[in-house]
Amino acid sequence: MQEFRYRQAKTVEGAVRAGGTYLAGGTTLVDLMKLNVLQPATVIDVNPLPLAQLEALPGGGLRIGAMVRNSDLANHPVVKQQYAVLSEALLSGASPQLRNMATTGGNLLQKTRCYYYRDTNYACNKRQPGSGCSAIDGYNRIHAVLGGSADCVATHPSDMAVAMMALEATVHTQGPQGERAIALKDFYLLPGTTPDKENVLEPGELITHVTLPPLQSGTRSHYLKLRDRAQYEFALASAAVVVRLRGRHIERVRIALGGVATRPWRSPEAERALEGREATMENFRKAADAAMTGAKPLKYNAFKVELAKRALVRALETTTQTERAG
Ligand code: SF4
Fold first, then answer.
1. Pocket of ligand 1, candidates 153, 155, 193, 263: which has the most ligand atoms within 8 Å of its Cβ, to mutate?
2. Nearest CA to 196 among 147, 117, 126?
3. Lower Cβ count inside 10 Å, N or C end of the chain?
4. How far is the CA of 140 from the centre of ligand 1 (A)?
5. What end-to-end distance do the CA atoms of the chain give, in Å?
6. What's the pLDDT tens digit per position in 186-200?
7. For residue 325, what pLDDT is reported?
8. From CA 40, how far away is CA 16, in angstroms rounded?
9. Domain range list for the chain
10. What digits encode the pLDDT tens for the residues 156-186?
């Protein structure tokens, strides 16, 4: 680990003014500093900031402070009852100990689990721009089939962000230029030729909170995660579904996929294939095919195309069965 300066922020404005890399739960940053993947000169500890409130918004919806811990968010009664997809996604991630530390803001900014990114012996455009990508012709079983480029095919590892994508969350920030509200669908960048630039945050910009819009009465949701082992593992494919039915008719649906793309992957194609149609297995399969249109499998990850389709079909089936039962 390289030597660095450590400062504690007392106010949001002070944190932004200080300029440095923000430390929240530390569950990603500290690991990567130990591995010399990240070498910040200055670390600003934002734990003292008053950003840990979780509150219902007047008129519906939820305001989630950036420092709300993943465990607290997952187990909050409003989240469990109204935003089940978010609770399920959070509880499917990491371990209880990590969830007790990891924060909402930090989770959105999780770094990829690409082995080559985390090992400084290998070329990696994301870690060192212009050095090459060891995964494209390497062992790429966990990598992306959607959203990749010739320079990077790393998946985004967050489960929480996939659920928030389907919930149409908004990220709120404060930076040197003031406050911003950014729709989550516009927050993450595709790797293109600059995989080191992962999102639209400007230097020094701090996530302060996330808001979720209210869900109309009768909306049901579900997160399904498929992985190599049952716990403490990242998704090979996952599906977040938020759906409202009238009888067996799909009035509105929002769909996002995880584990298969370079960013949490909202699928308007799958949504279009379902809205206004009946909730049938045939239509679920058509939506799954639409979701994976344009997938580009690599040497070792072609299985993800079918796995993601099955994850989505099963998530839709489960969600609409729940709706029927309710
Ligand atoms: Fe680096 Fe991306 Fe290639 Fe992985 S896939 S080695 S993160 S450039």
1. 153
2. 126
3. C
4. 10
5. 53
6. 999 999 999 999 999
7. 43
8. 15
9. 5-44, 52-326
10. 999 999 999 999 999 999 999 999 999 999 9
